[in-house]
Protein 1
Amino acid sequence: MEKGKQLIGYLTVDAQENYFRGAALVTDSRGIPTDFRYTEPVRPTKLERILYGSALDIYLREDIILDNLLGAIETKPSLWLLEDAELIGPVQKISRTPAIAVEASARAPLDQSGQCEPTAEQGVFMLQADNISAPLRLAVSDDNISKISQFAQTLTSSAEGMELLEPFSRIQRALETVSESESK
Amino acid sequence: MPRLIAELGRKLGRIFLGRIVVRGLGELRRQSPLCVATHFRAAEVRPLRTEPRVRAAMFAQWKKTRAQSAGTLLGGYAIERFRVKRVSLGKAKKCEVRQYKLNIKRRAAPKHSMARINRAPVVRHNRLNFLKKAPKFEHATLLAFYSPIFQEKVKKSALDKASGNLLFWYDNERVKIGEKYYLLLLRVFGGKEPLKWLWIQAGKKVG
């Protein structure tokens, strides 16, 4: 690992009709993987469906998948990027690392790279991570709003060597191969 | 008849001798036992499944089994703290077990697989639409613009014609990273090859 290079973590929890599966990928600032973990599919039992009711989703995502997945990661990133904003709180609580929900937007590019602007929504910002893409929509927890410029700097720096959202699609492809090999 | 004679004797004794019969409580209870009836029905609870039978004392082996492995014995559930102090099933027939708090928690065993993620291609989208000033070429026009790519680290690449995305695989065993590059796809007019790939070092003027 080169000195001064930031590690970015990508975390996703895939909820299918009858099972849940989580995966975490840690990359350096060029998108090169340093750690990758995924869970076996977690199928809720009938007893769990009855006991947890509407809280089953939260129980499986947070108590089972995130808890085990984040505990297994050996290369700790400086920032977790998520697709689902609802996971920000649990991820920060378990990993003690800042987490941001990030997604592509259809807005016109901002004036310059690194520009970060607040939106009308509390804790939601638009970040122009590089000069040749649409701005990213970032959602942070209330206690991390003051650190948004620090996060923006980290993401802008990483965007020089990679497409920031691309690792999510790589995780998805990797999980597809896992599912294919399991179904054989 | 004996009962009638006894009754006659008691009555004569009372008339002529002033005697009465004194009975004890125990005798009274024996003669008329207390009977409590209820209209409630008693419910018997019986399990539908058959009685479990222990075929092998697997717990005896847990002393040397890691908690994570022991969890597999319970089908996805793990025991966080459990320890058998000493199990002796020999002549003494003693079984001494130290009791701990048993915390059973379901696990989603994470798996580590760098090979799987390394097999997944890195994707670059065509960013031509986001170029503020598209470069101009003589006898050629720009079709696609991919960035950033570390050219020296690329092991193989492919173009997904349906989406226009560039798929490539980095050689992650290669230590040297090299410089960042843009990769351009050009349509060439009048040449032998209609398409041409062009690498340009990032930061340099394109076009």
Note: Helices of chain A lie at 46-52, 56-72, 88-95, 148-159, 166-183.
Protein 2
Amino acid sequence: MGVDNDRPVMAITGTSKGLGRAMAEYFVGKGYRVAGCSRGASTLTMEGYSHSQVDVGDERQVRTWVRQIRDEFEKVDVLICNAGAVQSALLMTVTPDDVLQTFLRTQVAGTFYVCREISKLMIARKRGRIITVSSLGVSLHLEGTSAYSATKSAVIEMTKILAKELAPLGITCNSFSPALFMSDSAQAMGEDWSRRLLAMQTIKRTVSIEEVCHVVSFYASPESGSITGQVINMGLVC
Amino acid sequence: MTEKRAFELIAASLEKLRKSGMLSAGAAVKSDTILLGIGSPLDSIGFVTFVTDLEERVSTETGRELYLVLNEINEFNINQPNLKVEALARYVVTLSAR
């Protein structure tokens, strides 16, 4: 019990598939106790992984989840706000309202609620690492992503402001935009979309989960205590 | 929960901040002590830390998940933030009774 309590705790949102699931697997393998969540049931059964069904766009569900984390783990050392939505890339002129609302709810409100509640646990301990996942779409101003990229841009701004607010308590907040990672969501966007995105990247290839987690590990490292409010754009010079 | 008990919880949170160095040693906590706004001894991060700690104490005291939501406090104006201990204590009593 004492040894287990020494293990660091990582909370990750959106762990049912893609990047979130891969990060959860990776960091459990690295010795973290991982508390993950998604709207659906767990797709991961690993020792060291704990799953909750949470709609991050629902304030009450987020609060309940974070309380459960506190009761089970007593702390959160690292938070990865990964939950997001990916939908077909329509130009703004023909983007329906429900698509906009989905992105606002999941990516803006969801990130806001999760960061707000998890930061309370970190404030109590005066330490922590908050990492949000943004998108290269923000820097590339990708056509067809007006709602998506606008909300991911909001995630970056929230991260930077939170970085300044929590700096006095030794809590860092950073963001990263993964280069194209061949998740189910990316594949659902179609080959043409992936080809277009790769062509716009400076490093014109997909990235591995190890490369993505290397960025997370850098941000989460005890030696990165002076790194805050930063955005790492993988595979892109912008 | 009584207002007296709510006051004690508020005072305990403030005392914890004093011990951690986030609040300078000073006058005792009174009903008209300003927690937020001009005249408050707490800076913004101090206030956040205080609210986080108080929320924890209130939840432990009542055995229920309770969340302090500032704009639920009658006397609180989100556009001109100003909060005294007495107003917060009254709110905590109301919250605990829900």
Note: The mean pLDDT of chain A is 93.
